[in-house]
């Protein structure tokens, strides 16, 4: 008897997100499909403005105020639909399943309240415990996230703590509700290199010990190589390449992915002097308020053909290489297949 395929913990299908202000409308996310399993780290990588944060936080109702949002498609967690839910139901579902680690913890915490009581009040709200139990949970979480002398730090204000300690508090806050999924939105950008390594090690340890899924939003390829199981490369609201970390980083196919990798010197040197792809990416991303038909990357692509400006490339599995490696570029896929067939013929 065939085993039934296990349902992913989180998935989006044909997700489209349009943002509207009084002046302009933007197609921020355009027909995205991806999924995350329990205990897995999915890195969403791309340049600033590619739609990484909107794609992840939009379905959770966490976009900034003052922007009208139109979301279509499917977004599910543990089989439950996140879209088209009343605000109260969505907030409950979000609190039970997701923990959010924001890029700037100082703006996510109330500067007028001590950090410990902020954690304790969330424990009371999300776990339904008493105030004393909430305080005990808060101190335990501070200790669990590597904060020394947690009883003392419980009574500190945010401004009395370093950036690294505040990010640990932010991680503790994200863990209060015993989430199934952590969303880490550029969690180490404002930290120095030593603290960055410590925070990444902490996240990896949490993921391994508790089987929590992590969606890691980043533009740092070295972090992706260090942390990710799966990688989704996002460009102008569309996925350009999607697959395992090993496939995407060591056998990139899409010209945009190659460009991202070639812009990182240490990764480029590991791939060798003869690695294909441009040394970085020329030009700028397109204006997503006035997008043209066809491939979003066409004006910056070194292998673009005439039809690329008219034909929207679908995200398709790469034949002969991996059933979990998807690429949205028929030109690059054809070139890769020809190269592989040539290498097989020579052998």
Automatic annotation (TrEMBL):
Record keywords, A-Z: ATP-binding, Cell membrane, Ion transport, Membrane, Nucleotide-binding, Translocase, Transport
Reaction(s) this enzyme catalyzes, per UniProt: Ni(2+)(out) + ATP + H2O = Ni(2+)(in) + ADP + phosphate + H(+)
Documented EC number(s): 7.2.2.11
Subcellular location: Cell inner membrane
Topological type in the membrane: Peripheral membrane protein
PANTHER family: NICKEL ABC TRANSPORTER, ATP-BINDING PROTEIN (PTHR43297:SF13), OLIGOPEPTIDE TRANSPORT ATP-BINDING PROTEIN APPD (PTHR43297)
Protein name: Nickel import system ATP-binding protein NikD
Originating species: Parendozoicomonas callyspongiae
């Amino acid at each position: 008897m065939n085993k039934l395929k296990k349902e992913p913990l989180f998935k989006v299908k044909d997700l489209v997100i349009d943002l509207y202000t009084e002046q302009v409308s933007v197609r921020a996310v355009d027909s995205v499909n991806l999924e995350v399993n329990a205990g897995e780290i999915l890195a969403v990588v791309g340049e600033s403005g590619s739609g990484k944060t909107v794609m992840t936080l939009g379905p959770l109702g966490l976009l900034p105020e003052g922007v009208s949002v139109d979301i279509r498609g499917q977004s599910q967690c543990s089989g439950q639909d996140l879209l088209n839910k009343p605000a109260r139901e969505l907030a409950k579902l979000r609190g039970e399943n997701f923990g959010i680690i924001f890029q700037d913890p100082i703006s996510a915490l109330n500067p007028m309240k001590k950090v410990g009581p902020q954690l304790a009040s969330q424990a009371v709200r999300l776990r339904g415990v008493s105030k004393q139990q909430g305080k005990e949970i808060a101190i335990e979480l501070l200790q669990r996230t590597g904060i020394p002398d947690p009883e003392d730090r419980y009574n500190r204000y945010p401004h009395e703590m370093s950036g690294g300690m505040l990010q640990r508090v932010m991680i503790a806050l994200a863990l209060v509700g015993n989430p199934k999924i952590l969303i880490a939105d550029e969690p180490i950008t404002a930290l120095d290199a030593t603290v960055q390594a410590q925070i990444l090690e902490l996240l990896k340890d949490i993921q391994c010990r508790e089987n929590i899924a992590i969606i890691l939003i980043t533009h740092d390829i070295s972090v992706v190589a260090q942390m990710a199981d799966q990688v989704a490369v996002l460009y102008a609201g569309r996925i350009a390449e999607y697959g395992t970390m090993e496939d995407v980083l060591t056998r990139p196919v899409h010209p945009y992915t190659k460009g991202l990798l070639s812009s990182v010197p240490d990764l480029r040197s590991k791939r060798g002097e003869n690695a294909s792809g441009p040394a970085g990416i020329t030009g700028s991303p397109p204006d997503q308020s006035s997008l043209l038909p066809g491939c979003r990357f066409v004006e910056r692509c070194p292998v673009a053909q005439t039809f690329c400006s008219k034909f929207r490339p679908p995200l398709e599995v790469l034949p002969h290489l991996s059933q979990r490696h998807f690429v949205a570029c028929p030109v690059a896929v054809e070139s890769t297949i020809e190269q592989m067939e040539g290498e097989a013929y020579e052998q």
